[in-house]
Write a structure and sequence with these properties.
The complex is a heterodimer of chains A (about 240) and B (about 220). Chain A has about 240 residues and is an all-alpha fold. Helices cover about 80% and strands about 0% of the residues of chain A. Chain A is globular, with a radius of gyration of 20 Å. Chain B has two domains: about 130 residues, no CATH class; about 50 residues, no CATH class. In chain B, helix 2 crosses helix 5. Chain B is globular and about 55 Å long. Classes of the chains: A mainly alpha (about 240), B mainly alpha (about 220).
Chain lengths: ~240, ~220
């Protein structure tokens, strides 16, 4: 047991710190290469820098993760996608309400992220069974459908409409690449994002060499992803 | 003190520190899989993905886990530098946490997963390599692309957050009447106090549904 606790603390410190700093970098993307997810960015924004909102959102998924940990030993992806970033942000916002000085600052998020990570991972690996099963079930049944609706179709639609509002070329490119993305990757958002990038570049700078190179990369990317996700096999190729 | 903080912030935002953050994150996630194999708890992934690894551990056939997870890893590693945000779910938690261990175990290499220290080191090594690869892809990306595409994307990213509150209320109402009432009353109170309604909806739903569950 002691071994498990010490290892959990180390894992939580390292992973929590890095992921929280990566989440802070999302607010400086694309200049800073970030790690997180578009949905994490959206959810962090949904809490608008209110510590109670960040904590309750993280806590809901924490109950859900506890249920999975007790049942199977899988802590769910939400530990690093949602629980740690929101706890880390909430802890900082208790003292300072300005998101620019807290949530957007990786040098602060890395600290509270590491602490949150250590606490959350250790708790889930040792004490998860003390959370009543009904409470975990309620959290799971309410949050999981909401989160999956958010990922598909709400986020694709919002990105799609944003692309359509950004001009004819952007709308056309985003629609083609978004549709391809939905077909190949199961979600349109990555394709829409690339379509917006390409469309806006063509709109402002014309069909230049950079756009052609980028298009080449995107087509290659889609073919590779299609192969690895078994899309060609589905077509019978 | 203020200047050290600013320097640290700038350093942590620089792209040269990205591989370092990747190393820490991958070390933790890879070691989480070590915990799962040794103690039966601690894998950073969804139940169904971990089950694929389980099948491999039980039967010795890791094809399902390796195929599924490395597909995600490759897709996300290529997409990350293009869009500016690396999706850690597919790339790190599934790819590095499940796919690479499955490949190692299939090849009969068990040491990095049996030993905690080695698992941290292996994870860190993988993280640095992937981080460098991502930064290299970024550098290779052609100049001359418009930056205004990013504004469109960020605007959309910010808008998605607003949908969460109503979605939680709808989902709570579908779950049960107490949860539903708790959710919209909580959201209304939160809104009247200028707070995000998502937080109020979750708190209200959990509170009322919890009270009814234990009555």
């Amino acid at each position: 047991m002691t071994g498990l606790i010490i290892k959990s603390i180390i894992i939580g410190l390292l992973g929590g710190g890095a992921i929280a700093a990566g989440a802070a970098r999302m607010f400086h993307s694309p200049e800073s290469q970030a790690m997180g997810a578009f949905r994490t960015l959206g959810e962090l924004n949904a809490c608008k820098g209110d510590p109670i909102a960040h904590f309750s959102f993280g806590m809901g998924f924490f109950f859900n993760a506890a249920a999975a940990a007790v049942a199977t030993g899988a802590l769910t992806q939400d530990v690093f996608h949602r629980i740690v970033p929101n706890f880390a942000a909430g802890a900082l916002l208790l003292k300072n309400k300005s998101v620019e000085e807290t949530l957007y600052d990786p040098s602060k998020m890395i600290v509270t992220g590491a602490i949150s990570g250590a606490v959350v991972v250790t708790f889930l690996n040792t004490l998860a069974s003390v959370i009543p099963e009904q409470l975990s079930l309620i959290a799971k049944e309410i949050l999981s459908p909401a989160a999956s609706l958010m990922i598909n179709p709400v986020m694709p639609i919002i990105f799609w409409l944003a692309a359509l509002d950004a001009g004819k070329k952007t709308g056309v490119w985003a629609t083609i690449l978004g549709g391809t993305g939905q077909m190949i990757m199961g979600n349109a958002v990555p394709g829409l994002v690339l379509g917006i990038l390409i469309g806006q570049s063509i709109e402002e700078k014309g069909f230049n060499k950079a756009v052609k190179v980028m298009l080449g990369i995107i087509i290659a990317l889609f073919v590779i992803i299609a192969y690895f996700r078994g899309f060609f096999a589905k077509l019978g190729l | 003190m203020e200047t050290t903080n600013k320097n640290l912030k700038a350093l942590l935002l620089a792209n040269k520190t990205f591989p370092l953050l990747m190393a820490l994150a991958c070390a933790a996630i890879f070691a989480g899989t070590h915990l799962y194999i040794v103690y039966g708890t601690g894998a950073f992934n969804e139940i169904f993905v971990v089950q694929m690894l389980d099948e491999g551990l039980a039967t010795g056939d890791y094809a399902a886990a390796a195929g599924f997870a490395t597909g995600f890893l490759l897709a996300r590693i290529l997409e990350g530098p293009l869009v500016g945000i690396l999706d850690i779910g597919g790339s790190l938690m599934t790819g590095v946490g499940i796919g690479i261990p499955a490949m190692l175990l299939a090849a009969g290499i068990t040491a990095p997963l049996d030993n905690f220290g080695l698992s941290l080191l292996t994870g860190a090594g993988i993280g640095i390599a992937l981080g460098l690869l991502i930064i290299a892809v970024r550098k290779a990306m052609p100049e001359g692309l418009s930056a205004s595409g990013t504004d469109v994307m960020m605007g959309a990213g910010n808008k998605t957050g607003r949908f969460l509150g109503p979605l939680i209320i709808i989902s709570a109402i579908q779950f049960s009447i107490p949860a539903g009432i708790g959710a919209f009353v909580g959201a209304a109170i939160a809104y009247s106090k200028d707070r995000p309604i998502a937080g109020g909806a979750i708190l209200g739903a959990m509170l009322l549904a919890g009270v009814f569950a234990f009555m």
